[in-house]
Amino acid sequence: MAAQSGSLPRYIVQRLLLIIPMVWLLLTLVFLLMRVAPGDPVTASVGGRLPPEAIEARQEALGLNDPLIQQYWDYLSGVLTGDLGKTITDNTPITDIIKENGGATLTLTVAAMLFALVIGLPLGLLAGRYRDTAADGTIRIFGIITYAAPIFFTGILLQLLFLNVFSGWPLLGQSTPITEFTVETRTHILLLDAMLAGNSEAVVDVLKHLMLPAITLGLLICGIFIRLTRVNLLQTLQSDYVEAARARGIPERKVVRSHAFRNALVPVVTIIGLLIALLMSGAVLTEKTFAWPGLGNQLITYIEQRDYAAVQGIVTLFAIVVVVISILIDIVNALIDPRVRY
Amino acid sequence: MGTTESVLALDPAGSYDLGSSTLQYAMYHQLLTVPPGTTEPEGDAAESCEYTNPSTFQCTLREGLTFSNGNELTSSDVKFSVERNIAIADPDGASGLLASVATVNPDGSLSVDEDAIETPDDQTVIFHLNKPDATFQYVLTHASAGSIVDEDTFPADALLPDEEAVGSGPFVMSDYQKDELATMEANADYQGPRPAQSPRVFVQYYPEASNLKLAIQNQEIDVAWRALSPTDIADLEGDDAVDVFEGEGAEIRYFVWRLQNQTASELAVRQAVSYLIDRQAISERAYSGTVEPLYSIVPPSFPGSTEAFKDVYGDQPDQAAAEQVLNEAGIETPVDLTLGYTPTHYGPNAVDEATELQAQLNDSGLFNVELKSAEWEQYQELYQQGAYDLFQLGWFPDFVDADNYLSPFFVNGGFFANGFTNQQVNDLVAQEQGSTEAATREDAFRQIQQIAAEEVPLIPSWIGPNVAVSGPGMSGVEETLDAAFIFRFWDVTKEG
Lengths: 342, 496
Fold this sequence. Notes:
Chain A is mainly α. Chain A has helices at residues 2-5, 8-36, 41-46, 52-61, 68-80, 94-129, 134-148, 151-165, 177-182, 190-196, 200-237, 240-247, 252-289, 295-304, 308-336.
């Protein structure tokens, strides 16, 4: 019985099946939250600009005059068929917005996560390895500050720093207009398109534009990695098997590298799933600060325009992404740590 | 060029906003255009235009005009463009400006008048106006009302998607990503007075004024135009790396009295506020001195403008005169007054302006002003419902003629329906609209402004300059900054 419940395939199937109720629950929450807001979306968005009959027509077209249960069904079936509806303000299919802007958000979040991992993990391990030293103190303070500092504050500070010290370094947007113009759109991920085109100048340009937003967003996650890795390493260093390794006379450096470091990183994988939501919400603020043409920027624009249909569509995508990635991380976690399956 | 102005639509029939028209001027021919630094239209697609009588406006098109898709541009396209604009009547569009060549229905809506536009041959267009209208030539200069579109490409009864829009103007839109980047390339086939001086222009859109400021400081863009905050402009003036240019302004702010309200219905109250308002202090304290006091609703650079409010009330606050006018009317002080503004439409300094006026009036001891604010959509409903005795509004001209600052405001309550009616004003408006004589029109303009100052249906507050910030090596930027608020990409060049 125990062997069956701990089998990896069964675990993966269970987690994948769990996506269905989780996504359903999230979609229901998104749907209900958008309807809890007072007033109707069309009036909130374009009221005062359109005559009453035009507002009525748009309400009808959006199905807002239908019974709530009908709207709910239409929404769910739309999501299932990949139709997230159209915006109220400019009648654009939301899938088009996701196609056009999703690549920029993906680029930013992946780069930020890489930055956080590359900086956060070594610093966390270093702090744990040299506990209660000056290096440990400095790294811990750094971790607290980067986690606590609001994204827009960090972003603006970096912009001002680069404006004054490295004048000319790109501070806004995803690339120069020339790059945007010359690189043919294939995947809607500009960095990838530039690579596919073999345009090294464009690649460098996009990477330069990416650096500050990725650092800003990455720093937020970095602080969490530092603290988590440090604590895990400290716990691992006090564990029985590490003590046993020491007792066998294995040099301390090898004990730390071969036994403690690897095991200290396992819980970090778990937390990555939880950090996806933080990363997505952080991306919204980062994109706004750096005029980064991603979904977060679009989301804020549509929130400002009170375009509930657009907000609902983009938030739905964010929710699905968070759920799916969380489940995938669970599966990866189960692969590297068999205890998770039991 | 960088801007924070968003673009509603590239189809002229579907927009009436500065962001859209800025691109449309570059993409399309209009029949007439306004050259830099003037208020007199000249031919664009038209070789010549003239009023053959006050109700008939006739234009002759240039020979050999073509759209960038190769289709010929003829008088039939002109007729089609105007009629489809009226027929579509998009709520976000400017079809209302074309009332002189439409049938005005009893409910005020417009429908196409098939006989209003005559095209005897491919080069000739004759507009039969439904009333004498000297402003019609100016209407044709506006991108949203006067742009000429291809009748073989644009649907007659619906808007064309942005990605399909083609024109015949000095630039061709080669790539357009809404709210992100517009790329325009010089149209080699353009004929007219505005050939492009640069082979390619990029328009970069920023969500925040702070982004725009950073972009020009860091030279990521060559020109920043619309809309830096007053604080940003003041800050950039001290930056040696950029040039701040100011041209004649046409953007104004003013406070409207709602005459249906008891307090606002008292002429003495309105006049007392006119005596007390300190426009210079509003400019300095609310806008860091980046705007100029305005003493008439018509900007000073427009022919026929007169500083009527300065003539009647002076240019300094006059407490004694305010007290006297209230005393003579037997009005008890302090007078309770509700002052409305919106923080979500006229920029972050609108609250500073309203607060400053509130302080000025309260400090006089003659008024007890309560400030009220609402988000823009709600604000428009509230001021029409009478929530405020006095409320702040702003205005951008549709075209560079003083009429555009008078008839929308003072004829039968104006567009804000504030209850002001004056038959003499109505007659004067009809008179200036019906005349093509400059002297006659300017005399009527001056009389209307004088009546407005005496009757005070509204109080002008300030006029903002047309500001652009330019990086090194740019030319043509300063020249385009005038009251027409057209950014003439075709005249702007960059060294190297």
